[in-house]
Automatic annotation (TrEMBL):
One Pfam family named in its UniProt record: Gtf3_N
Gene source species: Streptococcus taonis
Keywords: Glycosyltransferase, Nucleotide-binding, Transferase
Name by which UniProt lists this protein: Glucosyltransferase 3
Function: Required for polymorphic O-glycosylation of the serine-rich repeat protein in this bacteria. Catalyzes the second step in glycosylation by transferring glucose from UDP-glucose to the terminal GlcNAc moiety of the 3-O-(N-acetyl-alpha-D-glucosaminyl)-L-seryl-[protein] resulting from the first glycosylation step.
Gene Ontology MF terms in the entry: transferase activity
Domain of life: Bacteria
Pathway entry: Protein modification; protein glycosylation
Length: 335
């Protein structure tokens, strides 16, 4: 019996979906998982026969009774994922569905697809969901799988030599200004560095655009000091779409892996972890975010950096994912 894990290729290197799946596989390989690779393409250009042959190629190494960790979705459309699951079932594999994103919840226009996604999830022996809130939501939608695990945190694996963060009253935001549009209009006291692709001309003196950085560049720049800001797609939390509350944020892990404390909205699904471990501030508005950073003393900052250091080690080594994957496999094996 082998343990396999799916992966995706062919998307833009700036796609967080691709980064998250690739990173999970990098960690899983350290645990001797075998990779099943999907290419991102327009599946509607395939006939049924072509799609079938393509999947047979992907599954060539899959053995009867193996375990498959299916990183969901493949982003090739539900028909592709459904065909993949059917093939896994023919080989009597045990399926661990690792839900990264739930397309019917991401965009209201896709909500009608929910029954089909729930049906796919229900074929699993175990489901990994990002948060407790997502678990509750999917159960409401009809999820019946008995074994459900909560992911809670992304890892951010790296071995870059970074700096020792220095106390600065500064915030950094690493995320697309197209998606988090309001962030460029930041008007609060604390200066904000934005790491994003952007063609906007910047006339805002409180904001400094740093451009899109590669992973080592980004982590090095963040490690200089200050705080990492996490915020949803709406400036006002009451307007925030449900999805950001159900998911877990990648940038939280990026900041922590760079060694800096974070400022996160109270609706973030893992806000309580940030609070309990003293990794930064949990706030209800951007005004509060700026105010708390302004009020921070050098001693408080140093204490936070020390707290972050321990979590940072775990994230850099991929411990959250390793633990999750090992626990998931043990559970489907009833050990
Ligand atoms: O200059 C940049 C800015 C962002 N990122 C990556 O993009 C992620 C943020 O993606 P997203 O905004 O989708 O994260 P989330 O909304 O989940 O926090 C970060 O964690 C980084 O890994 C990067 O590599 N370079």
């Amino acid at each position: 019996m082998k343990i396999n894990i799916t992966n995706i290729y062919g998307m833009s290197g700036q796609s967080t979906a691709l980064i998250a799946q690739n990173e999970t596989v990098k960690i899983a390989k350290k645990l001797d998982f075998h990779e099943l690779s999907f290419y991102f393409y327009n599946i509607y250009s395939d006939s049924q026969g072509e799609l079938n042959s393509r999947l047979d190629g992907v599954l060539a190494k899959l053995g009867y009774g193996d375990i498959v960790v299916y990183q969901s979705p493949t982003w090739n459309g539900r028909e592709y994922d459904q065909a993949f699951i059917r093939k896994c079932k023919i080989l009597n594999t045990k399926i661990i569905t690792f839900i990264h994103d739930v397309p019917p919840l991401m965009f209201p226009s896709n909500y009608y697809l929910m029954p089909e996604y729930i049906e796919m999830y229900n074929q699993s022996d175990l489901v990994i969901v990002p948060s407790e809130k997502m678990k509750e939501r999917l159960i409401q939608e009809g999820l019946t799988v008995q074994k459900i695990m909560i992911q809670g945190m992304w890892d951010h694996v790296h071995e870059y030599p970074l700096r020792q963060p220095v106390f600065q009253k500064k915030l950094s935001f690493a995320g697309s200004v197209e998606r988090f549009e309001h962030i460029s209009n930041w008007t609060h006291t604390t200066p904000l560095d934005i790491f994003s692709e952007s063609n906007q001309e910047n006339h805002n003196p409180s904001v400094s655009f740093k451009g899109w950085k590669t992973d080592p560049e980004l982590l090095f720049a963040l490690s200089e000091g200050g705080f990492g800001l996490v915020w949803g797609t709406s400036e006002n939390p009451v307007d925030e779409a449900d999805y950001y509350r159900l998911n877990i944020s990648h940038k939280v892990s990026t900041y922590l892996a760079a060694g800096i404390p974070v400022v996160v909205p109270s609706y973030l699904s893992n806000a309580s972890f940030i609070k309990e471990k003293g990794l930064g501030y949990v706030v209800d508005s951007l005004e509060e975010a700026s105010r708390l950073v302004e009020e921070t003393t050098a001693e408080t900052y140093q204490q936070m950096v020390e707290n972050v250091y321990k979590v940072s080690y775990a994230l850099k080594q991929g411990y959250f994912t390793k633990k999750l994957l090992i626990d998931a496999v043990m559970q489907v094996l009833d050990i």
